[in-house]
Amino acid sequence: MNKFFVIFLFLCLVACKEKKEQVQVQIEISSFSDSRDGQEYKAAKIGQQVWMAGNLNYKTEDSWCYDNEESNCEKYGRLYTWSAAKDACPDGWNLPSADEWNGLIKTVGDKAAKTLKSKVWNGTDNYGFSALPGGAYYNDGSFNFIGDYSSWWSATEHSDGSAYNRYMNSISEILLENNNEKTHAYYIRCVQD
Hints:
Radius of gyration: 18 Å
Number of helices: 5
Helix content: 25-40%
C-alpha cells in the first residue's frame, strides 16, 4: 500500500472515532424551580451528570451582582465567595468538586470551553451549558473582566485560604483550572446530587 494512503486512512479512523465518541454523549435539557425563591433554571444532562444550564442567582450574604447592578444578576447570575458558594445550591444540588468538573471535561472533550460557551460568546454551546463572560469580583472591592472572562467555584479546597475554580476566557478553547483566594467571588454551576 502507498504510505500516504495508510496515513490518510489512519487519520480518517482517528477522526471517525472522535466523532463517534462525541455522538455518544447523551444530552437532555430540562428545567426546575428553586423552592427557596421560585426562580426557574434550565438543567443540562451531559453524559451521566446533570448541570445547571445557567449560573445560580440565589441571593445570600457575601454574594453580588456584577457592578452591583441587578440586571447583571438576571443575565449572569450572582458572584459568591467560596464560603457562601458552599451552601448556596438548592436542595438536591451541590457545588461541584474538582473531580466533578474533571468528569464534565472528560465527557465533552479537551476543547470544553469552546463547546460549553454560549453562541453569543463565540462558542458552539453543544451541550446546553450556555456559559457567558460575566467577569468576577475581587476582595479589594473591584469587579473585572465582564465580556471576556468567567469563573466558577469548585467545592475542593486548595489550602486554608484558597480553593479550586474553573474558568474560561474569550481566547481559549480550554476550560482551565486555577486556585484563588476564597474571598474572591465567582459564579456557581450546581450539579445534581
